[in-house]
Specification:
The protein has helices at 10-20, 25-54, 58-72. By secondary structure, it is mainly α. It has one domain (10-72). 1% of the residues are buried.
Length: 73
């Protein structure tokens, strides 16, 4: 862990502490950084899946599935 000296918006920090239930400024900042990174990872995953879904042939999949069930019966 590194030590940094930064200027922080006191009102934003106080609100983040209140909303998160964090007990210290350090805990609040670390929690905010982790949540920020996690949010961007989730967005990247959603964008990836949305891109894959655009090329998905749902009707073709349904036909293949129905054909597979017919063969199994």
């Amino acid at each position: 862990m590194s030590v940094s000296q930064i200027d922080v918006d006191d009102e934003a920090l106080a609100e983040a502490m209140r909303l998160s239930g964090a007990r210290s400024e350090k805990e609040t900042v670390n929690l905010a950084l982790r949540e920020y990174a996690a949010r961007h990872r989730r967005i990247a995953v959603l964008q990836h899946h949305a891109g894959v879904a655009q090329g998905w042939d749902y009707e073709g999949w349904q036909e293949m599935r129905a054909a597979g069930k017919a063969l199994a019966a």
